[in-house]
Please model this.
Amino acid sequence: MNRAALHKISYGLYIVTSGQEGKFNGQIANSIVQATSKPATLVICINRENYTHELIRQSRKFTVSILSEAAPMTFIGLFGFKSGRDVDKLKDVKTKSGVTGVPIVLDYSIGFIEAEVEGELDCGTHTVFVGRVVEADLTGEGQPMTYDYYQNVKGGKSPKTAPTFDQEAAATKPKAQSAARYVCSVCGYVYDPEKGDPDNGIAPGTGFEDIPDSWTCPVCGAEKSQFEKEN
Ligand code: FE
Model:
């Protein structure tokens, strides 16, 4: 089997939120398709270990926010590489409550779709949920972020919990480049000394060795020690 063919499937990049009674969470998802038009239904694929999975099971509802290309890696990292069991991801994010009561993420989002779960299919590591669309609207300007754009323009990586994660491809080391760039082993963020990390107080031109140990990955929050020299 040549898994490279699987990498040619196109996807978007979304935030799926769910929950009820004051307990809410959201996560990045790429495996979302509209299944039917009348009535409108959506199919989404969620890792069984994710907190959002638990919340969808309990509440039987979810909302999909469509991310724009403008979404920065730090924002994607908050929803894609951290668990809602550890952090309140929605705390500092602009949301509004939808008709189902699930918060709709508005930051870096160009539209949303609210759904109520009508069925599910156990796919081993993941569950496929089928949702009947109960509300949808446009909320912002811009182009929807595709998974290809996320990976090839933004330099993003699949977390191990993504349905599209490929162990073999992830283990392939990048080609040799100029030394002194460091890669986050968790999310794939690349620290480039030329650019630094000005948002977090690291001036351009700062070598990786000179970054304080308290610094963490701006995308996923991993410790400095989880970085590996790019080779
Ligand atoms: Fe990271």
The pocket of fe (iii) ion is lined by residues 184, 186-187, 189, 217, 219-220, 222 (CB under 6 Å). The two ends are 29 Å apart (CA to CA). The chain is about 10% helix and 30% strand. Residues 13 and 30 are 5 Å apart (CA to CA).
